[in-house]
Amino acid sequence: SVQLEMKALWDEFNQLGTEMIVTKAGRRMFPTFQVKIFGMDPMADYMLLMDFVPVDDKRYRQPPGLWLRVPFSPGRYAFHSSSWLVAGKADPATPGRVHYHPDSPAKGAQWMKQIVSFDKLKLTNNLLDDNGHIILNSMHRYQPRFHVVYVDPRKDSEKYAEENFKTFVFEETRFTAVTAYQNHRITQLKIASNPFAKGFRDCDPEDWPRNHRPGALPLMSAFARSRNPVSSPAHQ
Amino acid sequence: SVQLEMKALWDEFNQLGTEMIVTKAGRRMFPTFQVKIFGMDPMADYMLLMDFVPVDDKRYRQPPGLWLRVPFSPGRYAFHSSSWLVAGKADPATPGRVHYHPDSPAKGAQWMKQIVSFDKLKLTNNLLDDNGHIILNSMHRYQPRFHVVYVDPRKDSEKYAEENFKTFVFEETRFTAVTAYQNHRITQLKIASNPFAKGFRDCDPEDWPRNHRPGALPLMSAFARSRNPVSSPAHQ
DNA sequence: TTCTTGTCACCTAGGTGTTAATAT
DNA sequence: ATATTAACACCTAGGTGACAAGAA
Question: How many Å does it take to go from CA A32 to C1' C16?
Answer without folding.
Answer: 14
